[in-house]
């Protein structure tokens, strides 16, 4: 893919498609199955379109990738839990006003 084509926005669909490793495909399918993340969340997380996520989950893409093992599913579950905790912690911390943001006492 040439830089000039990227700058002009002329990039073939296959050139901009992100290739996933078998482990990423297994993680994506597991997370979709658990309902922890929406397909839109997964598309942002893996750098894909929502349609590509749907085709991967349904087995239309990466059909050759076998299902995840129990160990891989446990690792994906732990990673998803840790990310959720970090996201909720950041949201909670962002909702706490700083002392400078408080109105002066009368």
UniProtKB/TrEMBL annotation:
Residue span, HTH marR-type domain: 20-58
InterPro entries: HTH_MarR-typ (IPR000835), WH-like_DNA-bd_sf (IPR036388), WH_DNA-bd_sf (IPR036390)
One Pfam short name: MarR_2
Record protein name field: MarR family transcriptional regulator
Originating species: Archangium minus
Higher taxonomy: Bacteria, Pseudomonadati, Myxococcota, Myxococcia, Myxococcales
């Amino acid at each position: 893919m040439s830089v000039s084509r990227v700058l002009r926005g002329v990039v073939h669909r296959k050139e901009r498609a992100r290739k996933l490793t078998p482990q990423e495909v297994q993680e994506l399918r597991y997370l979709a199955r658990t309902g922890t993340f929406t397909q839109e969340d997964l598309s942002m997380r893996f750098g894909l379109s929502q349609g590509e996520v749907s085709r991967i989950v349904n087995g239309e893409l990466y059909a050759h990738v076998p299902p995840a093992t129990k160990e891989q599913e446990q690792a994906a579950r732990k990673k998803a839990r840790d990310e959720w905790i970090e996201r909720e912690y950041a949201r909670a911390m962002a909702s706490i006003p700083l002392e400078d943001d408080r109105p002066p006492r009368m």
